[in-house]
Amino acid sequence: MICKTLVTGFPRIGENRELKRALEHYWSKTASLQELRATAAELRKRHWLFQKRQNIDFISSNDFSYYDNMLDTIVMLNAVPDRFSGIEDETERYFAMARGTAGASAMTMSKWFDTNYHYIVPELSGTLDFRLCPGKILTEYAEAKKLGVKTKINVIGPITFMGLSRASKGENPFGYASRIIPLYKELLARCAELDDTLYIQMEEPYLVKNPTAEVLALLKAAYQDLASVSSNIRIIVTSYFEHSNETTKILAETPIWGLGLDFVHGPQNIQGLKYAKGKKIFAGVVDGRNIWRNDLGASLFLLEKISDMVGREQVVVSTSCSLLHVPYSLQNEPESDIKQHLAFCCEKVEELALLGRVFRGEVVLDSDNIGMKTARSRTPSTQHDGPADIAFGERKVRAGDFAERNALQRRKFHLPKLPTTTIGSFPQTQELRRLRRDFKKRAISEEAYEQGIKTYIDDCIAFQEEIGLDVLVHGEPERNDMVEYFGEMLKGFHFTDNGWVQSYGSRCVKPPIIYGDISRTKPMTVRWISYAQRRSKKPVKGMLTGPVTILNWSFVREDIPRPLVARQIAAALCEEVADLQAAGISIIQVDEAAFREGYPLRKENVSAYERWAVDSFRLAVSSAAKETQIHTHMCYSDFTDIIKTIEAMDADVITIETARGGNRLLDVFEREGYHNEIGPGVYDIHSPRIPSEDEFEKQIFSRLEVLDGKRMWINPDCGLKTRRWEEVRPALQHMVSATRNVRLTL
Length: 746
Ligand code: GLN
Ligand code: ZN
What we know:
By secondary structure, the chain is of the alpha/beta class. The longest helix is centred in the middle third of the chain and has 22 residues, at about 445-465.
């Protein structure tokens, strides 16, 4: 058989998010486990048969998951943390690890490399009862075979598994190799019994993260071992999201069968190929991370180059990574000008099939296909004519250094010590969601909608006044999503009807598509913020989403550099800041929730990213006068190594999440000499618990052990919108009164 095509992995949530619905019904006990299993089996079948109809040669099994593939791997190795091991029922235990129970907190989630997909972080410790549980893998293989599909089996490789794990204090996760690698060997031995030839795709994206000498040595030994288990087994080691040149040479010296490489996000992979002679190369040329149609001509050219290096018969055309990160199908989208330029998962599989056939000389490419990308850049709306005064590379920053601004702002605001505030949103009630939905559907009049929003803001401001917060917010009732809201008002964005992508578990997001130059045609937030400001003598914060976050949570055009798109967004926000200021808003918060996840995977690319990301933020707030106080908010648990960059953003105040982690984060800020003002979170909004005044005092006193009270704010962590008013009201009241008590002691 001549093998032409491989799909790294297929999304499992379903064309109409069937898996999401089935999971949520099962969790809320409105559906049985049988029903959930039936939906899952139906989805697997549909997805396998679709790929088969497209004549894909390598179709995956075990790319399905009820929650997350990393969690499945934890189960495969029986690396079940002690707090869950008492749960007898397998399904119950599985979801308990993902979602927590009354008695045991959920396992942590973390972002999968630089994507917006979250995996469950394995917890390695000496007490784990490691043992192979290959059930899911073996059954799914048999299930597909019965449907006439002989799959390759996807497994997260041992190096990536350990590399992404958290080991008990002071332990090195790679120290678990001697317990984990033997289980992978056992797995391969079990798989070898399934068929004459078995293809195993070992996913090792960890290899793209500047592997250390330790990782390289471990990798070599591991795959030397694994590839020797059985002559029935053909191992493909797959990396993605960047090049993995350090490891290509090493892997080529082991008896593995093939290498999966991402030539879209790691074009440098081509250089490693000179070491890869004799190995099959699964050449990732169809982008699994973006939604633009493939430039087939360019892909074929690339495939020819790869062939020149390793020999034509060795090359199999592949997706750059799993298609998990793109929406399902364009068929569910209404007609629009940009639709012809898009390819979602199903269309990408078709592109792959076509590329495979052309590459093998079975058909010729017609001009329609070759021309697509060029056609897109010829579309008038994507021609670059962005604002002239933001030429790429030019830096625009606000006036005054922190010391000067801070002195002016103190004189202007007269805030008490430890000023109190919140991060922006207040509870999003059912009523509010209905109001927005009805207005969007035109089921209610504009007046009715606006009255609804006004009432919410009135109540929200009245509540904050009543409990005595110092800097107020309007509560964000008009926003369903912090990116979508701005995207809808800016030129250059397209919104899909059904472009859902799995974010974690049953949660999906619908990223906007940036297809053209971005510009602002009218003020976006001024009306509601000034409405709120008129209701109070205290300052009400303007609330904007930052340029880097808008960029990172969108699918971005590829005909101009990303930093330039970021600058266009920043320029639009800069106008908004100016308008807010002119309308009398004196404190403006610019959220950068996705600043951290935008970091490149490779160290050598970090400083360039930091430069343009910081520049974009500073450009966005460059219209702020010295007296205008700029806040930013970032909700990550790890600021190590990036404090200098946060400092370069030079926000007057940064709010962070510390309610769960205690002083650990603040320590990092202190140690690195960060000197602007900081608002460490003292209310853990991820928990339904309402902390007492006493607990708040303890939290605040504890923060004061690390941070000088003169530059400290008091606020909750972010996410009030996910809580109910009945929780938020008493909690914030306790927060404010506790702060008052603490002030008396300062
Ligand atoms: N202002 C937003 C809110 O409070 C910030 C959310 C975020 O950064 N994740 O919801
Ligand atoms: Zn946050």
